Each structure stands twice: as C-alpha cells, then as structure tokens.
Amino acid sequence: MFMPSGGYKHVFGEQYQSNAYMVRLKNHKTPNVESRSAKLMKLDGVKGIVQNTTSKKQVATIVDSLDQIMEVLILVAGLLAVVILYNLTNLNVSERIRELSTIKVLGGLGVLVYRRLKTVDMFGALKSVE
C-alpha cells in the first residue's frame, strides 16, 4: 500500500522510515535483470526483490489470449448475421409469394428476384459488420 508520510504517521502513530528502494536499470534485457537481481539478493539487507518484467509478460499473454477470443467472437457474430439475414430473406420471400408470382407473370424471373434479394442482404450484412 502506498501512502504519504503524513498518512503513515496518522495511521500507525510512528514516524515514517523508508524500508524499500526502487531501482531502475538502464539495460532492461532479461539476462541483465536476472543477474542484477541475483547480486542484490546476496546482500545482507535485502529480503526480497519484485520485478515488473514478469508482470508485463503475464499482461501481454492475457491480452494476446483476449485478442484471439475477440477474433473468434467477431467471426461467429458475422456468421450469425449471415444466417439470420438468409432466414429473414426466405421468410420475406415466402410471405410475398403472390407478389413474386405477379412479377413472374409480368416477365420477371423468380431466380433473378431471389438473387437480387440475397445480394441486397449480403451488402446489408457487410455494412453492419463495419
């Protein structure tokens, strides 16, 4: 826990005395950090060392895992949108079968009508994914 020296005195009733040091190395590479940590641990006054390099690695691993999960979720959501739009189009066409019959009688091709409806739905799905 971090607190100002005045807060420490107020809570514990004693004068604040520093019992830790923050060391920042110029060379942040892992072998250098490990060798410096080993040297510091050999000193009599050192009871423990906390390195933030392992924390950084753990956070990076978690973020990479979350990125993969998000990619899967986006892919599944896109597939779900395509299936839903396909089903809605078929439902819409089945409800409008008389109107399509009228189009066919007037010279329109049923296959062309279905193709146009599905094309419009695909463009709608792509637009919604953006």
Describe this structure in words.
By secondary structure, the chain is mainly alpha-helical. The chain is built from five helices and no strands. α3 packs antiparallel against α5 (110-129). It is rod-shaped.
List keywords for this structure.
130 residues; mainly alpha; 5 helices; 71% helix
Layout: helices, strands, pairs:
Blueprint: H1 5-12, H2 30-41, H3 53-95, H4 97-105, H5 110-129
Helix pairs in contact: 3-5
Number of strands: 0
The class by helix and strand makeup works out as: mainly alpha
Number of helices: 5
- Rg over CA atoms: 33 Å
| Proportion in β-strands | under 5%
The main β sheet shows up as: none
Low-confidence stretches: none
H/E element string?
HHHHH
Mean pLDDT: 81
Shape category:
rod-shaped
What is the helix content?
over 70%
- The N- to C-terminal Cα distance equals 44 Å
Summarize the structure.
The protein contains five helices and no strands. The protein is an all-alpha fold and 130 residues long.
